[in-house]
Design a protein that fits this description.
The protein is of the alpha+beta class. The chain has 3 domains: 90 residues, Transcription Regulator spoIIAA, CATH 3.30.750.44; 99 residues, Roll (Pdz3 Domain); 157 residues, Alpha-Beta Complex (2-enoyl-CoA Hydratase, Chain A, domain 1), CATH 3.90.226. A hairpin with a 2-residue loop joins strand 2 and strand 3. Helix 10 runs parallel beside helix 12. The N and C termini lie far apart (83 Å). It comes from Hymenobacter cellulosivorans.
């Protein structure tokens, strides 16, 4: 009988709900304190944009450290760190985990972008193919309320509690976090159009942002004599290299190429980016500049370097236009400034996501989930900060259809081969 108990116990475990089988061992108060100290110190020593922020990071330690004695669960600790990291109002800093009522990430988890203009919250971009566009939200509309909460009131809980002053950057991040909403609540956006209020429901009948699907890593076709390749948020997938090579080979006889990066909100890695650029050049060239401020703070010695990209076989040598927008982020932004720095592409579009620098990932020693923060500043080769780049050629967003693509085709028709 005793020899059968282990097998019986195993069978009981097999048929338990997964959530019960996977319950982690509760952490002690000392372990939560150790994780928080690791988190705070890591950000303090490595985050490279404190000079752009109004954040009092020392006060973050005092304010959120005082809440640690009340932490009894993983979810409570996740929320505490979410709130602490939000003090940086940096869309390129985040946790690797979330709660059902966590805010969606910017820009990958939202379908609308807004700015304050003359005191009003104005839509400046709408993500193509998603709920906000489907229900009629358009650039130029004034946002009045989110889930019946007036805009200014909706911002207040999203503004950092340790800010020395609430600057416009903090207000803009809070505005877009309010518009993104949480994972578990459908949004109601109230807008004003020509003096009339409209109520829009971008998450009905389903929350599309929680289940984003694409038709492959990329989509390609020929438009007249011009090739077109759209990257479907796959710059972090190494399988993109073979997919891009195949598509570009099929389009090798075209007179020009449109590379559409407007749906790359998830960033990516330099391997994929350099592979794509390598098919568009014929000689090794620099494409971006790096700087690591942590070494300046620690040793007083500035460290910076220029990264090169090497050509790959069967280069495409015809003119190239790159399309960008508010959902071109991180590695998509790096790819854009790289091609522009190498004078290999004309850039058409709006401001990009303006994500800060290059991120590094860290893991908490006891809780075991990770967090990401920018640790390297990135620049165009000539020294322009990547997040400040704005395309010289901008489409008319009020025009019907895909104004950016139309302008790209016009540009390629007049470009010299």
């Amino acid at each position: 009988m005793l020899r059968r108990i282990p097998r019986l116990f195993f069978l009981v475990l097999v048929f338990l709900p997964a959530a019960l089988r996977a319950q982690p061992t509760p952490l002690t108060a000392a372990q939560y304190q150790q994780d928080f100290d690791y988190f705070w110190t890591t950000v303090n020593d490595n985050y490279c944009y404190f000079d752009k922020k109004q954040t009092d990071w020392a006060q973050v330690r005092t304010l959120y450290g005082a809440q640690l004695p009340d932490i009894r669960s993983r979810s409570q600790f996740v929320r505490l760190l979410e709130n602490a990291l939000a003090e940086l109002y940096d869309n390129h800093a985040g946790l690797s985990t979330n709660l059902p009522d966590s805010r969606r990430l910017l820009p990958s988890g939202t379908d609308v972008c807004a700015q304050f203009q003359q005191g009003k919250a104005i839509v400046v971009a709408v993500r193509a193919g998603f709920g906000a566009e489907r229900v009629g939200l358009r650039p130029g509309m004034e946002l009045v309320a989110v889930n019946d909460v007036p805009i200014e009131q909706a911002l207040r809980p999203l503004l950092g509690r340790t800010l020395k002053a609430v600057d416009e950057a903090a207000r803009e991040v809070a505005l877009n976090q309010a518009l993104a909403g949480t994972h578990n609540q459908a949004r109601k956006l109230t807008v004003r159009v020509r003096g009339k209020k409209l109520e829009l429901y971008p998450d009905q009948p389903t929350a599309q942002l929680e289940n984003i699907q694409y038709n492959g890593l990329l989509e390609s076709r020929q438009i007249g004599t011009v090739g077109y390749i759209r990257i479907n948020n796959s710059l972090g997938n190494n399988a993109m290299i073979a997919a891009f090579d195949s598509a570009l080979t099929r389009l090798s006889a075209t007179t020009g190429l449109v590379l559409d990066l407007r749906e790359t909100p998830g960033g990516g890695n330099t391997v994929v980016a350099r592979a794509l650029m390598g098919r568009l050049i014929t000689q090794e060239q620099p494409y971006q500049r790096h700087e690591q401020p942590a070494e300046v703070r620690e040793f007083g010695i500035r460290r910076s370097w220029v990264e090169l990209v090497a050509p790959r076989p069967q280069p495409y040598t015809r003119p190239v236009v790159v399309l960008v927008g508010r959902w071109t982020s991180s590695m998509g932004e790096g790819l854009t400034i790289g091609l522009e720095s190498m004078r290999r592409a004309t850039i058409i579009g709006t401001e990009m996501a303006r994500l800060n620098g290059s991120i590094e990932s860290y893991r908490l020693p006891n809780s075991r989930f990770g967090f990401n923060i920018p640790t390297e500043r990135l620049y165009r080769v000539d020294g322009l900060p990547r997040e400040e780049f704005v395309p010289a050629i901008r489409p008319d967003l009020a025009a019907p259809g895909d104004a950016a693509l139309v302008k790209a085709l016009e540009q390629l028709q007049t470009a010299k081969p």
